[in-house]
């Protein structure tokens, strides 16, 4: 077999193994290692490339952003900042049709800016938002759909684990990726709020609910005590990166320290909770390092096989336009999103298309935003839909089935698709802060 045939078979084998339940880095690393060995008939070369991949990943300075931002997010979650922001948002939207849903989106957007995890958002707001919406007679499908839809904001609003993973795969600045995610993340949050208003106005039966007339108002001091810690943390992290005072790594370290101080001042975290946060940070960091290492050897395998260049020549030979290439790319991500998680999609698809994007003189920062938003739609689509599974398992309510969660999330997946099309059509939206 030719190297290209081996490369194609390898990509198919990786997707099959991941879908069959094999751990993603194991599937990527093992198949890529064997493919290099077969293509060059040189076991030593394959072993050396694996060693280089491990060394490059572990010794990369910007890799320090992963444990720092992960630790910050875990401390923030344990400090109860998500619940505080939700209570303030709920009070502000209490008399609007679908107001609690809008409050959930707003709180998720703010919470995402200090955690960067859609799974954490789904878990937290399933506990605090869904029971309250059901108590206010909201449609259960709408209630879980809002939480599922808004939870994906954690993967696009910085600091985002997926933006970090993409920055390693595409060799882009983590700080630039964070800044590029701000406007698309806000656009998605605003689009969600607009969609909820639209559904409340034209499909009130799907939304349900009643205004919370008896909701207790908060004093200015109480609102400040619940919002200022989170807003201060966001200002330190993103403000430091935007002004250039802090690199992404320094912002992560500063944010982790500030989050720890907030948790100590609020007395919301025990020594046991601190130790648990440290352990979980280690587990997550090790898992992501394993992912990045596997992605590195996979990229080298694709380069040896010549698949990216072959794809580029094929599309150039067909005189494919920018529009057609984007359609192919988005459709591929949407299809894989029904089978794989976001990290898998980024690691498999991005190395294939990067040379093509570079050849077209397109921004790799913009391409990263398109990739993450497109792949995130998969969090809301069956059969995998990780956010939907997290909500179902966290809710533990037999009255709400997994089908209800997926059906409730469907309108928000459609909104994400519209926002994705806008971002593709107007690349300047993703790059505005950087220019």
Automatic annotation (TrEMBL):
Span of domain TRAP C4-dicarboxylate transport system permease DctM subunit: 12-428
Transmembrane region(s): 12-38, 58-77, 98-122, 142-166, 178-199, 242-265, 277-301, 321-352, 364-385, 405-426
Keyword set, alphabetical order: Cell inner membrane, Cell membrane, Membrane, Transmembrane, Transmembrane helix, Transport
Cellular component GO terms, alphabetical: plasma membrane
Protein localization: Cell inner membrane
Topology versus the membrane: Multi-pass membrane protein
GO MF annotations, alphabetized: transmembrane transporter activity
Keyword set includes Lipoprotein: no
Function: Part of the tripartite ATP-independent periplasmic (TRAP) transport system.
Quaternary structure note: The complex comprises the extracytoplasmic solute receptor protein and the two transmembrane proteins.
Family classification: Belongs to the TRAP transporter large permease family.
Name of protein: TRAP transporter large permease protein
Organism: Pelagimonas varians
Gene that encodes it: siaT_4
